[in-house]
Design goal:
Elements (H helix, E strand, L loop, with lengths): L18 E5 H18 L2 E2 L9 H10 L4 E3 L2 H9 L4 E7 L3 H10 L4 E6 L2 H14 L3 E6 L13 H11 L4 E7 L11 H24 L6 E4 L5 H4 L7 E2 L9 H5 L8 E12 L2 E4 L14 E3 L4 E6 L4 E5 L11 E5 L12 E6 L2 E7 L8
Parallel strand pairs: 1-16, 2-9, 3-4, 4-5, 5-6, 6-7, 7-8, 8-9
Antiparallel strand pairs: 1-10, 10-11, 10-15, 11-14, 12-15, 13-14, 16-17
Length: 366
C-alpha cells in the first residue's frame, strides 16, 4: 500500500484532496447509540465491516459492546484477524481450493465462520479442515426473499443443515440471512411488514432445526437499512448493521435515524460558467450510483456528473460563492462503494485531524 506521512495535527482544510474524512464525535455517538439500542433490544451486535474497512474502527465497535464482526470477503477477515479481531463471520460463500485453504489456516489465529448453502462447498471445507487439524464454524445461509445466495427456508433448509452438521471438521452454529430487498421500501409500515415476514422465515427455519435436534446458537441478519425492525423480531440473536456508523446519503434515504459522519474533502479546480464548477473528486473518489453525493455547507450546489477524475457541480446561479481553489465537503453517497477507493481515512475532531487510519487494501476483495 502507498505510504504517506502522517497528517495528524493539521487543520482538516489543509489536507490534500480528495481526502476522505470522518467526524469522530458524530461517528462515536452513532456507535454508542447503536450499541445501546441493541443492548436494550436484547440482541447481540456483529457489525458488518464491508463498508467501514478500517480495523481500528472495528476495535471501537467491540469496545462499545459488539461481540464480533461481519465481513463480506475472506480477505477482509484476514486483515481483521491480523489486527487482533477474533470472532469473525464471513457472510458469504468461501469457495475453491485456494480460498478454502486460507479459511482453514486462518482458524489457527482467529475463529472465522463462513456461510454455506451447497453441500459441495461444505464438503470442500470439511475435507480441508480435517487435513489442517482444525474445526470451522459455519452458518447455513437462508434465502428470505432477496433471491441472491441461500437455501430455501423451512424443511429444505433444515435438511441441508442436518447434512452440514454431520460433516467432520465443521461445527454447525446456526443460520443467517440478509433482508436486503426491504431496505429501500419507502413506506415505513410496508417496510416493517415485509421485513418481519422475510425474517420470520429465517427464525421459523431455526426453530424447526432446534425441534429436529440441531444446536442452533446463532440466528444472524439485519443490516443498517433495517436494524430497528429486525432487532425486535423474536428469535433473532444478532444484528449485522455496521455502515450506519457512517450514515451516508443512502442510509438516510433508507430511514436510518442517525447523523451522517462520512465526508470527502475536495477542491474546486474550475468554474467555467456561472452555473457550473468542477472539483477534483470523480468516480475514483466517490460513488454516485446508489445515491448522489451531496455538497454540505454551501447552498445552491448539486453534484451533477462524475467522470473518472472530475466532479461536475451544478450551481443555482452566479451568486453561489465558489471560486477556483476553494475546498468543499461532500457527504458521501454510499460509503460501501467509496471507502475502499481510498488509502486513508482521516478522523477529524473540532476541525483538526486527530488520527490517520489505513483503509484495508483493495486486495481484501478476494
Amino acid at each position: 500500500m502507498y505510504q504517506a506521512c502522517s497528517q495528524v495535527g493539521i487543520p482538516k482544510e489543509a489536507l490534500d484532496t480528495p481526502a476522505l474524512w470522518v467526524d469522530l464525535d458524530i461517528m462515536e455517538h452513532n456507535i454508542q447509540t447503536l450499541a445501546n439500542f441493541f443492548r436494550r433490544a436484547g440482541v447481540g451486535w456483529r457489525p458488518h465491516m464491508k463498508g467501514i474497512k478500517v480495523p481500528a474502527i472495528a476495535h471501537k465497535l467491540l469496545q462499545a459492546g459488539a461481540h464480533g464482526v461481519t465481513c463480506a470477503k475472506l480477505g477482509e477477515a484476514e486483515v481483521l484477524a491480523a489486527a487482533g479481531i477474533r470472532d469473525i463471520l464471513v457472510a458469504n460463500q468461501v469457495v475453491g481450493a485456494q480460498k478454502v485453504r486460507r479459511l482453514v489456516y486462518l482458524q489457527k489465529v482467529a475463529d472465522v465462520m463462513a456461510a454455506v448453502d451447497s453441500l459441495e462447498n461444505a464438503q470442500e471445507i470439511s475435507t480441508a479442515a480435517q487435513a489442517a487439524g482444525v474445526q470451522v464454524r459455519v452458518l447455513v445461509e437462508v434465502n428470505t426473499g432477496m433471491n441472491r445466495c441461500g437455501v430455501e427456508p423451512g424443511e429444505h433448509g433444515v435438511r441441508f443443515a442436518q447434512q452440514v452438521a454431520e460433516l467432520p471438521g465443521l461445527r454447525f452454529a446456526g443460520f443467517m440471512s440478509w433482508e436486503g430487498h426491504v431496505v429501500a421500501i419507502p413506506d415505513p409500515e410496508e417496510k416493517r411488514r415485509i421485513c418481519t415476514e422475510s425474517v420470520g422465515k429465517l427464525v421459523h427455519t431455526a426453530e424447526m432445526a432446534r425441534q429436529a435436534g440441531l444446536p442452533v446458537e446463532i440466528v444472524s441478519c439485519g443490516g443498517s437499512g433495517s436494524y430497528w425492525i429486525t432487532a425486535g423480531i423474536p428469535g433473532v440473536t444478532e444484528i449485522q448493521a455496521g455502515g450506519a456508523v457512517f450514515t451516508d446519503v443512502t442510509y438516510r434515504r433508507w430511514g436510518v435515524p442517525l447523523v451522517p459522519s462520512l465526508f470527502l474533502l475536495a477542491t474546486v479546480i474550475s468554474r467555467p460558467t456561472a452555473t457550473r464548477a468542477v472539483c477534483d473528486a470523480g468516480r475514483k473518489a466517490l460513488d454516485n450510483v446508489v445515491s448522489t453525493s451531496e455538497v454540505v455547507g454551501v447552498n445552491g450546489v448539486r453534484v451533477s456528473v462524475l467522470s473518472a477524475e472530475h466532479g461536475i457541480l451544478e450551481l443555482a446561479g452566479p451568486e453561489v460563492p465558489l471560486r477556483v481553489g476553494d475546498k468543499i465537503d461532500i457527504m458521501v453517497g454510499y460509503g460501501d462503494l467509496t471507502v475502499y477507493k481510498h488509502d486513508f481515512l482521516y478522523g477529524v475532531r473540532n476541525g483538526i485531524v486527530e488520527v490517520q487510519w489505513e483503509v484495508m487494501p483493495r486486495s481484501a476483495l478476494r
